Amino acid sequence: METENKLIRRDALEKLFSQWLAEGKRILAPKKCGDKIDFAPVQTLDEVSLDQVQTVQSPKTAVFPRVEELFSFKSMDGRVQIRERDNDALPETVIFGLRPCDAAAFASLAAIFTWDCPDSLFSARLGKMTIVGLACARADEYCFCTAVGGGPGATQGSDVLLTKVSGDEYLAEILTAKGRSVAQAGAGLFKAATAETKESHLAKVEPAFALDKITPALAAWFDDAAFWEEQSRRCLGCGACAYVCPTCACFDIQDEGGVSGKRLRCWDSCGFSLFTLHTSGHNPRPLQSQRWRQRLMHKFAYMPERQQVLGCVGCGRCSRACPVDMNILEHLRAIAEAKP
Amino acid sequence: MDALKNKARELLAAKTVQVVIGYGRGSGGAARAVFVREASKADTLVFDDGCRQNLAVYLMKPEVRKLGKAALVAIPSTLRAVLQLAAENQVGEHDLLALVVTPAGEVVQLATLQAIEAHVASLDPDLSTAEKEELKKYEALSLEQRRQFWQEQFSRCLKCYACRAACPLCYCSRCTVECNQPQWIPVPAHDLGNLEWNVMRAMHLAGRCVNCGDCHRACPVGIPLYLLNQKLISDVFANFNFRSGMAVKTDNAMSTFKPNDSEDFIR
Fold first, then answer.
1. What's the first-to-final CA gap in chain A, in angstroms?
2. Do the beta carbons of residue A324 and residue B33 sit within 8 Å?
3. pLDDT of B184 above 60
C-alpha cells in the first residue's frame, strides 16, 4: 500500500481516543505506574506518557501476556471435555505511542508464533490490534535500533506512525489498510500534510556495530568457553532481560486444577537454570555462560537462520532492566570484533 | 581509590587470593561488579557512593567460586551477608577475605571471619531513621489496607526472580518455586502465584535478611520489597532480640528449636 501523509493536532488525537473507546476498542499506551512507565489501558490522551525514551516493559504483553489461559478442561465419566478459548471475545485493541523498535518487534514474535503451526490465540490478538507508533525524538546510550535494521522513525510494523513536528502537531504516516481505517474513521480529524518531513524531528542514533559481522562472529566464538564466561560472570541468572524484551517468546505450560482446570501459558527465560533441564537430570546448558550464549545465539544466529528475522530490535530494555548492568550492546560490540 | 588498587594488586601478585570481586565502571559511568584476576588489571577497580551492590551474592555462584579464594570489596551489608552465610555453613575462612574502604579512602583488610565479626560489631545494624519512619507509616495501615497495598504491588510482579537472584542469602540451588512434586507455589505470575511467591520469599528471609536492598533495586517493576524485609527485621528484633549477620556462629531466629521455648505450640 502506498503511504499517505497527514497531519493531526493533539486535540484531534484526543477526539480520536474518544472515538476508539466509543467503538468499543481498548487503548493501551505508556502510562505512569508507580515510579515506572509501562503499557496500561488508558481512556484519555492526558493519561499517556509520551516523552520517555522507553517503557520498562515491552508491548508484547498485548499479544503474549505473561499468563494466559489456552483452554479449560473437565473430566467426566472417564472422558475429558476441552473448552477452547473464544478468540472472538478478545478485545479490539489500539496500541498507541509505542516506539518504532517495538512496532518492528511484532514481526519477530509472529515469526515464532506462526512458524510451523500458527498459534491461534496469538494470531487473533495480533489481528485485532491496530498499531499507532510514535517516532523517537530522543534516544539513550542503550538504544541501538539503527544497528539492527530499524531507526527512530522506521515505519516497519506500525499501521500509523506519528512524528511530533511542532508543539501540538503530529505528522501521521498512514501505512497499512488498518491505518487507512483509522484515518477514514477519523476523517474530519486529520488534515492534509504540508511539505514538512519527519527527518529533522528524529533522534540521532548512529549504527553501533556492523550487523553482518555478528552472526559469523557468534559461530566463531561458540566453542570459546572462556569468552562466554568472561562476558557473563556477573550475570545473576534472573529473567528480567527476557521478560522486558519485546521479542523473547519462550514459554512454559502449566496445568492448574484437578478433574477440572485450565492450561496456562506462562513466560519463561533461557537465563533460568531450570530452562532446559531434562527429566533425566541432564541439562545441556548447565552453566550461566552457556545460557547467556544461548540468549545471543537465539537472537542473532538461530532466528535469522530459521525464521529470516532478527530476534532483537535494539530497544535496549534488557540492558536498562538488568540488575547487574549486563549491557547487551557492549557485549555485541565485543563479539563483532574479530576473533584473535 | 589508589589504596584499593594497590591492595588488590598486592593480593593478586602474592597469590593470597585468586580473584578480587569489586566494583568497576559500567554503563553511563555507574558502578558494576568486576572480577579482577590479574594484578595488571587492578586499575579497573573503583569505589564511591554508587557502589551499592552486595557482592557477597557472587560467593554463592559456582562460576565465581571455581575461580578460587576471593578478596571481596565489602560495604556494611556485604560483611553482614558474609557472616550470615558463614553462620549457615555456606562460606568458610578459606573462601574469602574482605576489603573495607574507609571514608578516608584507606583499605582495611579483614582476613578472617573473626575479624569481620569484630568489624561488624562496630556498625549500627538498626534501620535508619528514614526507614523507621516509612515503616511506621506502613504499620499505621489496617490489615485490610495492607492487603490491598500488597495486592496492587504484587499484581505487577513478572516472576522474573531478579529479587531472588540478586539476594546473597537466596542461595538454594533448587528454590521451592522450582519443586513441582508437589508444587508448593503456583508457577504462573497471576494474583495467587505472585502473592505466594512474594510472601514465601520474604518469610524465607525473615531473621536472615541483612537489609542490603538489592532485591528491591533489582526489581524491574519497582515493587517495594524492602518494606516487607524491614517489617520482618523489625518484628524479629522485637520478638527475639535478634539481628542477622552479626556473628559467625548464631542460632537463626526462625529456624532454631529450643526445648525451653516460651511458646506452647512448638513443644
1. 47
2. yes
3. yes
pLDDT over 90 percentage in chain A: 90
Q: Residue A340 pLDDT > 60, yes or no?
A: no
Which residues in chain B have Cβ-Cβ distances shorter than 8 Å to A237? 165
**B29 φ, ψ to 5°?**
80, 5
Cβ separation of A66 and B189 shorter than 8 Å? Answer: yes
Could you say which of A201, A220, A235 is where a domain stops? A201
Q: Do B57 and A236 touch (CB under 8 A)?
A: yes
Using a CB-CB distance cutoff of 8 angstroms, which residues of chain B are in contact with residue A232?
63
| SS3 letters across B110-144 | ECCHHHHHHHHHCCCCCCCHHHHHHHHHHHCCCHH
Mutation site for A-interface testing, chosen from B158, B167, B196 by largest number of A Cβ within 10 Å: B158
Determine the 3-state secondary structure of B101 from DSSP. strand
- Encode pLDDT of B120-165 as tens digits: 999 999 999 999 999 999 999 999 999 999 999 999 999 999 999 9
Which of A238, A256, A274 is the closest to B165 by Cβ? A238
pLDDT per position as a tens digit, A157-171: 999 999 999 999 999
- Answer whether A292 touches B (CB < 8 Å): no
Question: Do A97 and A245 fall into the same domain?
Answer: no
Which pLDDT band holds residue A256 (cuts at 50, 70, 90)?
Answer: very high
Residues A244 and A317 in one domain: yes
| pLDDT at A339 exceeding the cut of 80 | no
The 10s digit of each residue's pLDDT in A202-222 is 999 999 999 999 989 999 999
How high is the pLDDT of residue B219?
A: 98
pLDDT at residue A187, rounded to an integer: 85
Residues A188 and A230 in one domain: no
Cβ contact (<8 Å) for B32 and A66? no
Q: Which residues of B touch A57 (CB under 8 A)?
A: 158, 220-221
H or E stretch covering A5: strand A4-9
Report DSSP letters for A19-79, one per residue: HHHHTT-EEEEEEEETTEEEEEE-SSGGG---SSS--SS-GGGGTS-SEEEEEEEEEETTE
Indicate yes or no: CB of B63 within 8 angstroms of CB of A288.
Answer: yes
Residues in chain A: 340
B28: nearest CB among A36, A57, A141: A141
The pTM score is 0.95
Q: How near does any CA of chain A get to the CA of B10, in Å? A: 23
Same domain, A52 and A176: yes
Please tell me which of the candidates B156, B188, B221 has its beta carbon nearest to residue A266. B188
Number of domains in chain A: 2
Q: Judge: B221–A57 Cβ closer than 8 Å, yes or no.
A: yes
Distance CA A166, CA A52 (A): 17
- B221 CB within 8 Å of a chain A CB: yes
